[in-house]
Amino acid sequence: MIEIQNLSKRFGASLAVNDVSFKVEAGQFCMLVGTSGSGKSTTLRMINRLIEPTSGKILINGEDVTSIPGEQLRRRIGYAIQGIGLFPHRTIFDNIATVPRLLGWSGEAIAERVRELLELFHLDYDTFAHKYPQQLSGGQQQRVGVARALAAKPELLLMDEPFGALDPITREHLQDEMLRIQKQLGITLIMVTHDMEEAVKMGDVIAVMDQGELLQMTDPEDLLRNPREGFVKNLVGGVDRSLRLLTLTHVKDVMSAEAQHEAKEGAKAPEAHLNPQDNLRDALCRLMWDKSHSLPVLDEQGLEVGHISLDQVVEKGARM
User: Fold this and answer.
1) Going by C-beta distance under 8 Å and a sequence separation of 6 or more, which residues neighbour residue 309?
2) HEC states along 157-186?
């Protein structure tokens, strides 16, 4: 668990972060959201003491980070940024091995960890380990940057807009990959973004900041349904709030659990259908595209396991 207590940072006469307090439970994915200059990146950098706080406390599993030498602390906390920051004249293997080498890991342990991480990010070891960063695409470089941040098995991973410079397709793919990895590793993760879509998709909790202050921190559905008046409501409001709500629920959670059509031996699966893991925003798009009021839901074997109606989707996105 990480606990921030009355954290402030002043740069001369400017108060960048003002008396911020919050908790992130072990294994949670926390998104820090706000516009440029809101204090979210400054808050993130104070956690690993790249920036020293003016006042306040930061506790990681009950331990005050100010009691830990800064360099030692940063070796315990993974950190990934938008610019990636890979060493251009080192191979991918050597980039990922940077912190384990500083910590004195054996060569065998380092090689095993590099292979494990490349496979975790779906990067073939024999293909990528001895390449250089400039030989990789932007998405591949970003994967390596996050792999390097995870190399020493940190208890906490900090990410500062890591996908901001990527094209939309690559960005969405890496978001999905990061969610998979975070769930698989069970690591506590705090990520800065200015993109509310990204925050709603990825966060277990979302903390909204503005002008150095924490305005509201809650789970995505509660934030969308009950935003604080003023800045938060303007940030999450608008006509697309219902669509964001629909991304939080999967077809399997609301579908009618009976098939509309009896399965016939040798029959082809219907072309227009949904999968149980699709979210309701995807379901709405498919229903509209096919001009249908109801669609079958097929499992991985192509068997019909239920159906979902337009009314069921609309109900989940409606105001309570």
Assistant:
1) 256, 293, 294
2) EEEECCCCCCCHHHHHHHHHHHHHHHHHHC
Report the alpha-carbon distance of residue 113 to residue 215 in Å, rounded: 40
Backbone angles phi, psi at 191, to 5 degrees: -130, 135
Residue 268: phi, psi to the nearest 5?
Answer: -80, 150
Alpha-carbon 146 to chain mean position: 12
Q: For each of the chain's 320 residues, which pLDDT tens digit applies?
A: 899 999 999 999 999 999 999 999 999 999 999 988 999 999 999 999 999 999 999 999 889 998 888 888 888 899 988 766 789 999 999 999 999 998 999 999 999 999 999 999 999 999 999 999 999 998 899 899 999 999 999 989 999 988 877 888 888 888 999 999 999 899 999 999 989 999 999 999 999 999 999 999 999 999 999 999 999 999 987 768 888 899 999 999 999 987 665 555 545 556 789 999 999 999 999 999 999 999 999 998 888 999 999 999 999 888 87
Query: Residue 4 pairs with which residues in a beta bridge?
Result: 22, 58
